[in-house]
Fold these 2 entries.
Entry 1:
Amino acid sequence: MSLKSFARHRAAFFRQMEKRSIAILPAVPHAVRNRDVEYPYHPESDFFYLTGFSEPNAIVVLKREGQRRSWVLFCQPRDAATEQWVGERIGLKRAKSEWGATEAWAIEQWDEKLPELLTGADHLYFNLGAGHAIESTLLAQLHQLRMRNRSALCYPQSVHTLDPLLHEIRVRKSVDELHAMRRAAEISVEAHRHAMRVCQPGMGEGQLEGEVLYSFSQQGCRTVAYDSIVAGGNNACTLHYIRNSDLLKDGDLVLIDAGAEWQGYAADITRTFPVNGRFSAAQKQLYEIVLKAQQAAIRQVRPGRRWDAPHRAAVRVITKGLLELGILKGELKTLIKEEHYKPYYMHQTGHWLGMDVHDVGRYKVGGKWRPLEPGMVLTVEPGLYIPLGSKGVTKRWQGIGIRIEDDVVVTQEGCEILTDKTPKTVAEIEQWMALSTD
Ligand code: GLY
Ligand code: MN
Ligand code: MN
């Protein structure tokens, strides 16, 4: 993503702002891990989307006065002594010359500059209640301005949540964003292929996770989009299992849900495959149901289809499959209507994907599932989970958790699967795993 892409994001946001308005977004603080050890800094997505700026201790202000649009960045000034320890800062000069800020100020000047920024705007966009440290001073300042109303000052009369405007822009991806997402997908596909090839019975889940991370790094990517799930056997029935601390057993399946983040954009892939490279008959029967469900769901991804169409397609295939295997009994229509599949398939078939793995954007508009549009990106990820001890289910099916997840872009004609080079059918997986790495 070039800095020009972020300028386009700002331009799109400015177009949605009221004529005389101001938007304020603080960067998230650097999170402490323990004592004086911090987590690697990761910018909050809304802030990054509008700035491309990834340092902490920053605030961005976007101001629209009729046709005049300006943006002001408050950030950490250059400081040789600190930079000796933590590395180079961007500083005020580059914030203007490279990032294109209309004005740049040291973060320490925030309180002093705030009154003049607020004056002249009728509307303020700010996420109240989001825990931003600047909220109390901002509200106090608004109060101050109100108390001075005899001076004929113009200041914001209404405060709006930022999310509805900004997230509606974020839900449709630009060409540049799709470019970054394709790369995140490619890196992740390669890592899943690598993990399938090196997986062996007796390996630790954490060891296999290490292979995924190793592959990301080898491809020049050190950031994951979320904590990787590597779940052998029954562990795969825990949807967000991230302990990854058991040994992988011969005869079990292993589920890997892992995605890289590239230039701030996420991939999110799940594959489930046999630890020893060959599916058992029972595993194969359940796997084929999930695969068919996923294929049916992906066929629903095209412009004009409503958000819930893929889920409904997946639910139908899964319920029918469970009925055919005797895990469910009754009439298909009733089983679907009464959600009898839910003990074995309890999540949705997907979510928006973008900067955040569970990306922003509404799923319903005006009380109805929204129609899909070109440029939207979603995951398609049906699953089946039959934990050990499931009542009324024969032992044959127990201890198996399967999910298959791909990342899909809605295109003019239908869809593009960003992650489809990851082996997926039983034959593709078994063939791929049979190719020795030595
Ligand atoms: N990796 C989280 C999810 O699939 O939603
Ligand atoms: Mn997902
Ligand atoms: Mn996932």
Note: Residues 171-434 form a domain with the Creatine Amidinohydrolase fold (CATH 3.90.230.10).
Entry 2:
Amino acid sequence: MSRFSEPQDPLFQALDRSLEIDRRLWPYDVAQSRAHATMLASRGIIGDDDREAIISALDTVEQELASGRFPFRDDDVDIHMAIERRVTEIAGRSGGKIHTGRSRNDQVATDLALYARDHAVRLADQVETLARTLIDVAEAHIDWALPGYTHLQRAQPVYLSHHLLAYVWMLVRDRERFRFAARQADVLPLGAGALAGVNFDTDRPMVARELGFAGVVPNSIDAVSNRDFALDLLQACAVVSTHLSRLGAEIVQWSSQEFGFMELSDAWSSGSSLMPQKKNPDCGELLRGKAPRVVGHLAALHGVMHALPLTYNKDLQEDKEHVFDAVDTVTVCLDAANGMLSTCSFKRERMAEAASDENIAATDIADFLVKRGLPFREAHGVVAGLVRICAESGRKLSQLSIDEYQAQSELLDQDVYGLLEQSSWLESKISLGGTALPRVQEQLAQARAVLDL
Ligand code: ARG
């Protein structure tokens, strides 16, 4: 029997059907159905014979799904209905008992929480792998100088190791975000029923233990309407994608002929279909280009959740595509970043040449004056004057005479020429977190300790 006397419109069916998206939840749906049936039998809500018939049918269903031989039907609206339908075909009347004390509302929330937890844990590990690679690359280029930039103008030289470690710290925070998302997904929604709880004396903690959850959601209304764990996972995905986009963008710049700081391996480059000389950094560009898509998924799920009345609404069916695509995208991007970085090579000479632009020492001359008693703002003005003389006369700072220096400030003497030697600009950055080599060594050790390396 059905409550309806007319068939559904095929257009509505097409809109409503979510199987193509949610079928990948099947391992979680099978696992929770096993745990649920086991609990129902342990409470005497279904018989042991029912449990056996259900579990054995679930074993068959699992094999069929794993091997791609599951007989999906056009009227399977989602993975939950498909699995229940098939269990009932195999187990007969006992199969009809699997949905006792369960609603698709707590069922889908449980599947998604299991998925989110697994992938958040996995992505935290993947982030860690990339951080390790970056640490190795940093260590291999510990004292290779390159210009640091602000506004994409050469600002102050830094060591490549220092620059790469900046990304390591981003990834350390990303790992934390994924771990947080995993904890948020680690409580069991199942047992909430449609929204109010169920008419049976179930054992939710038992189901939680079976599925490896740390606890159960304490409120049945929250259990079926909560998707915060999905937002948290998407947030972690969005932020790490943004980090990868910055890394990708720098690789695009660095590998250009204009910069010439690095070369990508052939394995991580593309050619041009037209111009035979080209070696394109498509991987870096895609790290840059994929990020807005992931951030878009986060914004879209916020949109779905916004002002949504409690409890379950079909809007929630729209959560999964955003989560899945964000997770898939970040998974491939993290692997790609790892592959590209572990095979690229840096050009020491080119970077050193760019870092030896003497104008980069301007701040150092100002600080030299400060150490001799001039207020910083006045020192800034003195050096601006020197840089201007250089620009107007087409010379470098080291080519100005001592008289020219002293005309700007009597505090300047021969020592100023020592400041213009390249290594001094790096090794003078001795403050905690600075680019001086001993500080970078400290930082490397700290990063290794945080990552348990
Ligand atoms: N496919 C649905 C979803 O993804 C499952 C839950 C359906 N619940 C309902 N009351 N219609 O949200």
Note: The chain has three domains: 10-100, 105-353, 356-450.
